[in-house]
Design brief:
This protein is mainly beta and 926 residues long. It is built from 13 helices and 51 strands. The chain has a 22-stranded antiparallel beta barrel. A 5-stranded mixed beta sheet has the order 3-6-7-4-5. It has a 5-stranded mixed beta sheet with strand order 17-15-14-23-22. Residues 1-36 have low confidence and may be disordered.
C-alpha cells in the first residue's frame, strides 16, 4: 500500500524526524527493513508506521546537523518545547546547572524523560524531573518525543508527554569524534571529544559489546563580555521618554547603614520609623568612587548603590564526562540478555557578585560615633536599638559555587519470545548525586568576625582605604569546602509483554500488558561546616531522608476494526505509599492511588491521508519534599519590597528600612493529593506526492488539583489576605529579626493549555542534487492558569510576562533549507519566536528625576536567529561538519524582569547569550 510504505516508513523517518526541525540527510533515499519494534507511547511491538499518537523522531543525522553539543541544547530547539529550565540559572542558585525538559510549556515536572524506555533517578531537589545533563550525548542514537499525555502507560509525570532517549545498540567498529566551538565575542569557548567502540554482531556472533566515552568543556562568559549583560544600571527609552532601570545593589564596601529604634511605650504619632543613609556620602558629600545614588531611595532610606551585576557570569564554566557501555548476548533466537551501564560526571562552577553580608555596628563604638551618630536627631540617638551596615565583601572576590554531579544508571534484563508473547523484563538501579562546594568568596565566621570587630575595620569606607583587609587577612577568611550533599537512589523492576490476539476485519488485534515496582530514596545532608557556624551569615540546607515506593500495572489493546481504522485503548493503576521520613521515624502523607485511561484511533480514508486522535486522563503525585518538607530558611526574595501595610500594622519593628529584600522560608504539606489531567489530540497527515508532506495536531490539556503556592509578588501585594504566609526570622549574621515570607505548596491550582503542532516538508531531486525544505512550529491557542493560591482567578502568560515569571510564546517556528550535492551538504536554519509584553516595572524617569508615575511594560521584540552548517564527506570513513550559529550575532532583547536573580536586562531562557559562534566537528570511522 502506498500509505504504509511511503507515509508509514519514509515519513516516520523523514517527516516526523523533520518535525524535530531538520531534514535527515538520507531519509528519502533509504527504506528500513520491516520489523516489529516498540515505539514510545505504546507497549505493543508492531511494524513502524505513522501511528495514532504524535511522536517526533530526532534521528542521529538530525542530532549531528543541529550542531548541538548537549541534549538540552538539542531539545530546546524543538518548537514543541517551551518552559525549559536552563544551565544559566546556576548564577545565584544552587541548581548546579540542571536542565529540565518541558513539552508545550507544561513544565519539567510533567514531562517524563526515559532512557531506553526506562525511568532514571530524578533530581533530588526537583522531585520527579530528570536532569538532561544525566544523558550520555555520545551514546544517543535517536530521540523519540511523544507530545501527548501518556500516564495510562507510564504512570505519573507523563501528563505533557514523554522524551525517550534511545541509545546505540549492536554497534561494530571504532569511531573518533571531536568538536570545537568558538564565539566571535570574548569567552564561551567549548570543546568535546569522544570515542565509540563496539564488536560482535548480535545476529551472527550472538553477542555485541559497546563502549563510548565523551568529554566536554565549556568556558565561562563574563557579564562584562557582552553588551546586553554588562550592567544593572540600564538607560532606555519608551514612548518618547528617557528612563533608567535600576537593579543596582545597596550592599557595597562603602556600606549603607540601617538604623532601627526602640518605640516601646510611645504613641503612634511619636514612633520613630526605621532610617537608612550612606555614611560615606554624609561625610564627604557624595557617594564613594564606583558608587552612585540609588534611584529607588526615599527620604527615610537614602542610599548609595553599586553595579554588582557586572561581576557575575552569564554562562558558567563546566566540564562533563560520560561513559556508556552495553552488552547483549543472544542465547537463542528467543532469548537475549542485556546489560547497560551509564556513568556521568558534571562539574559546574558558577560565579556571582561578592558576598553581601550584614555587619552589626555597635552603638557608641568609634565607627558608630564618627559615621552614624552625627547624622541622627537627638531623639533618634536616645532610642537607637540596632545599627546594621549593608556591607559587601568585594575585596574577598566573587562567590564561587562548584557543584559536582555524579550519575549512575544500570539496567539488566532480557528480551524473550515465549508462547507467542514478546517479553521484556528489567532490573534498574539509578542514582543521581550532587556535592555542592564553596570555592571562593564565602567567609569563615570566626575569622571574619575577628576582622570586622577589630578597631581598624570600617565598613563605611571604600576598597583600598586605610583599614581595608590585607591580602593575608582575606586569604585566611575565605571558606573552602562542601556545604551539602544530596542524592536520589532509585531501584526498580518492570516487565512488559505483547502479542497478537484474535483476527478482526482490519487485521490481527494485539495486547500489551505490564507491571512495575519502584522505590525512591531521596537524601540531603548539610556538611558539618554548614551546620556548626563555620560560615559567616549562612543558613544550612534542610536535611532529610525520604523514601517512597510505587506499584503500577497497565494493559493496552490495539483493535484494527476495519482495514483502514485502528482503535487502541489503555488503562493503568498506580499506588504510591506515604513518604517515610527516616530522620523523624514517621510516615508523612497518606497512601495515594490513581487509575488512568486512554483511547486513541487512526483512520486512513485514502492511502495518502491519515487522520488520528486520542483522549485520556493523567495524574501526578506531589514530590516527596512537597509532602514531607519541614520549614527551613530559603534565602531571600527575588526582588526588593516596601514593607506592606498589613505587616506594619502587625509589627512595624519587623519591617526593614526602605525597599529591600526579605528573608523567605520553604516547607511541605502532608495533605497534598495527586494532580489530575484530561487531554485530547486531533490531527492529520497528508502526502499528496512523494515530495510533499504536511501535518498538524491540535492538542488540549486541562489540569486540576494542581500543587501551587502563592508567589512572593502576590503575597507582598496583599499581605493582609496572605498574612499566614509571613513569619518573623532572625538574621543568622546579626540575630536581628525581620519579616520573612513562607513559600509552601497547596492543592488548588488549575491550568488549561491548548495549541497546534504543525510541519510541512517539501523535497525534490534535481540533476545537481537534492533540495529539501522543512518548516515546522507550534502555535499556542491557550495557556491559562489560576493565580497561585486560587482556583477561580484565571490569568495567562500568552505573549506576556506572567505571574509565573515566564512567557508562553504563541508562535515558535523553525525553517530548514538543505541542499545535498554529492559529498557536500549545506543547511540553513531560521529559528523564530514572537515578541511579548514585558513585566510591569516602575523605572526612574530622567525628566522628573523621580520614579515614573505609573508602571510601564516594554514590548519585547520577536527574536530570530540564522544558523548555517556545511557537511563534507571526505571519504566513507571521514566526515567533517562546520557551521555558524547565530550568523547575524543577534543579541537578547532588553527585558526588565525582576525574577532573574543576578542576570539583569535579558532573559537567557528565550535568547542566545553566546552570540555568533563558529564550530567545527569531525568524525572518523575505522
Amino acid at each position: 500500500m502506498m500509505f504504509q510504505e511511503k507515509i508509514g516508513v519514509r515519513s516516520v523517518r523523514l517527516a516526523l524526524g523533520l518535525l524535530a526541525g531538520i531534514v535527515a540527510g538520507q531519509a528519502l533515499a533509504q527504506d528500513a527493513p520491516i520489523q516489529r519494534v516498540e515505539i514510545t507511547g505504546s507497549s505493543i511491538k508492531r511494524i513502524v508506521k505513522e501511528g495514532a499518537l504524535p511522536v517526533q523522531v530526532v534521528s542521529k543525522e538530525v542530532i549531528a546537523r543541529s550542531g548541538a553539543t548537549t541534549v538540552a541544547d538539542l531539545l530546546q530547539k524543538l518548537p514543541a518545547m517551551q518552559g525549559f529550565t536552563i544551565e544559566a540559572v546556576a548564577a545565584g542558585s544552587n541548581s548546579g546547572g540542571r536542565t529540565l525538559a518541558s513539552i508545550h510549556d507544561l513544565g519539567g515536572s510533567y514531562t517524563l524523560v526515559l532512557l531506553n524506555g526506562r525511568r532514571m533517578a530524578p533530581l533530588q531537589d526537583s522531585g520527579s524531573a530528570v536532569n538532561l545533563n544525566s544523558i550520555p550525548m555520545a551514546a544517543v542514537e535517536r530521540v523519540e518525543v511523544l507530545t501527548d499525555g501518556a500516564s495510562a502507560l507510564y504512570g505519573a509525570d507523563a501528563i505533557a508527554g514523554v522524551i525517550n532517549f534511545i541509545l546505540k545498540k549492536n554497534f561494530q567498529g571504532l569511531t573518533l569524534d571531536a568538536g570545537v566551538s568558538v564565539p566571535t565575542n570574548p569567552g564561551g569557548k567549548s570543546a568535546n571529544a569522544s570515542i565509540t567502540w563496539g564488536f560482535g554482531d548480535l545476529e551472527t556472533n550472538r553477542y555485541n559489546i559497546l563502549m563510548t566515552y565523551r568529554h566536554d568543556e565549556q568556558k565561562m562568559v563574563k557579564a562584562t563580555e557582552r553588551e546586553f549583560s554588562k550592567t544593572s544600571y540600564i538607560p532606555f527609552g519608551h514612548e518618547g521618554k528617557s528612563y533608567i532601570y535600576d537593579r543596582t545593589s545597596t550592599s557595597g564596601t562603602a556600606a549603607n547603614v540601617s538604623v532601627a529604634f526602640n518605640n516601646t511605650g510611645k504613641a503612634d504619632k511619636d514612633k520613630l520609623p526605621a532610617y537608612g543613609f550612606n555614611p560615606y556620602r554624609a561625610v564627604n558629600g557624595q557617594c564613594a568612587p564606583g558608587f552612585f545614588p540609588y534611584l529607588s531611595s526615599t527620604p527615610a532610606a537614602n542610599y548609595c548603590a553599586v553595579d554588582s551585576a557586572s561581576t557575575i557570569e552569564t554562562v558558567p564554566e563546566s566540564k562533563r564526562d560520560s561513559l556508556y557501555t552495553s552488552g547483549r548476548f543472544k542465547f537463542s533466537d528467543n532469548l537475549t540478555a542485556f546489560a547497560d551501564l551509564s556513568l556521568g560526571r558534571f562539574d559546574l562552577t558558577a560565579r556571582i557578585a561578592a558576598n553581601p553580608v550584614s555587619v552589626a555596628v555597635a552603638p557608641n563604638s568609634a565607627v558608630y560615633n564618627q559615621y552614624v551618630k552625627p547624622y541622627l536627631s537627638a531623639d533618634q540617638q536616645k532610642n537607637v536599638q540596632t545599627a546594621t551596615a549593608t556591607y559587601r565583601a568585594s575585596e574577598f572576590g566573587t562567590r564561587d559555587s562548584q557543584t559536582i554531579t555524579d550519575v549512575i544508571h544500570f539496567v539488566t534484563g532480557f528480551d524473550a519470545s515465549v508462547a507467542g508473547w514478546d517479553v521484556n523484563t528489567g532490573l534498574t538501579y539509578s542514582k543521581y548525586k550532587l556535592d555542592e562546594r564553596y570555592t571562593g568568596g564565602y567567609l569563615l565566621n570566626k575569622e571574619f568576625r575577628s576582622l570586622i570587630n577589630s578597631s581598624t575595620f570600617n565598613p563605611f569606607l571604600p576598597t583600598g582605604s586605610p583599614g581595608s583587609p590585607t591580602a593575608a587577612q582575606i586569604g585566611s577568611s575565605i571558606f573552602h569546602g562542601s556545604i551539602r550533599e544530596a542524592y536520589s537512589d532509585m531501584r526498580a523492576i518492570d516487565t512488559r509483554a505483547s502479542r497478537e490476539l484474535f483476527t478482526l476485519p482490519g487485521g490481527a488485534s494485539s495486547i500489551g500488558i505490564g507491571a512495575d515496582y519502584r522505590e525512591l530514596n531521596q537524601v540531603q545532608t548539610a556538611s558539618t561546616a554548614a551546620k556548626n557556624g563555620t560560615i559567616y551569615g549562612f543558613s544550612a540546607s534542610n536535611e532529610f531522608d525520604y523514601t517512597r515506593d510505587s506499584t503500577g500495572a497497565f494493559a493496552e489493546l490495539a483493535l484494527p476494526l476495519v482495514k483502514n481504522l485502528e482503535v487502541t485503548t489503555a488503562v493503568r493503576y498506580d499506588r504510591y505509599s506515604g513518604v517515610k521520613d527516616a530522620n523523624t521515624g514517621t510516615t508523612k502523607g497518606k497512601t495515594q492511588d490513581a487509575s488512568t485511561y486512554k483511547v486513541s484511533a487512526r483512520f486512513t480514508p485514502t492511502t495518502a491521508v491519515l487522520l488520528r486522535g486520542s483522549y485520556g486522563t493523567g495524574f501526578r503525585v506531589a514530590d516527596q519534599a512537597e509532602i514531607a518538607g519541614t520549614l527551613v530558611p530559603g534565602g531571600v526574595t527575588a526582588t526588593a519590597y516596601d514593607c506592606p501595610a498589613a505587616l506594619i500594622a502587625s509589627n512595624e519593628a519587623l519591617c526593614k528600612a526602605g525597599r529591600l529584600q526579605y528573608f523567605l522560608s520553604r516547607g511541605g504539606n502532608e495533605q497534598l493529593k495527586p494532580e489530575k489531567s484530561k487531554q485530547y489530540t486531533i490531527g492529520f497527515r497528508v502526502e499528496p506526492s512523494s515530495s510533499l508532506t504536511f501535518g498538524a495536531d491540535l492538542w488540549d490539556v486541562r489540569m486540576t488539583n494542581q500543587v501551587s503556592s502563592v508567589s512572593e509578588t502576590q503575597a507582598f501585594a496583599d499581605a493582609g489576605k496572605f498574612r499566614e504566609l509571613f513569619t518573623d526570622f532572625a538574621d543568622p549574621a546579626t540575630g536581628i529579626k525581620s519579616w520573612a515570607f513562607i513559600d509552601a505548596p497547596i492543592n488548588i491550582g488549575r491550568t488549561h493549555n491548548r495549541g497546534i503542532d504543525w510541519d510541512l516538508t517539501v523535497g525534490e531531486k534535481y540533476s545537481f542534487g537534492k533540495m529539501t525544505l522543512n518548516v515546522n512550529g507550534t502555535h499556542m491557542l491557550k495557556a491559562s492558569y489560576t493565580k497561585a493560591g486560587t482556583d477561580n482567578e484565571w490569568t495567562d502568560s500568552m505573549d506576556s510576562y506572567g505571574t509565573n515569571a515566564a512567557v508562553t510564546f504563541r508562535n515558535i517556528a523553525k525553517a530548514v533549507f538543505a541542499l545535498e550535492t554529492g559529498s557536500m551538504t549545506n543547511a540553513l536554519t531560521i529559528n523564530y519566536r514572537n515578541g511579548y509584553k514585558d513585566q510591569e516595572t516602575i523605572p526612574y524617569d530622567v525628566a522628573t528625576s523621580k520614579p515614573a508615575l505609573s508602571a510601564i511594560r516594554l514590548d519585547v521584540p520577536s527574536y530570530s536567529t540564522v544558523d548555517y552548517q556545511g557537511k563534507f564527506a571526505i571519504s566513507k570513513q571521514w566526515e567533517v561538519r562546520g557551521g555558524i550559529k547565530n550568523l547575524m550575532d543577534k543579541e537578547p532583547p532588553l527585558t526588565l524582569r525582576t525574577s532573574s536573580g543576578h542576570q539583569i536586562g535579558y532573559d537567557a531562557r528565550y535568547a542566545d547569550t553566546l552570540g555568533r559562534t563558529v564550530y567545527l566537528n569531525t568524525s572518523y570511522k575505522f
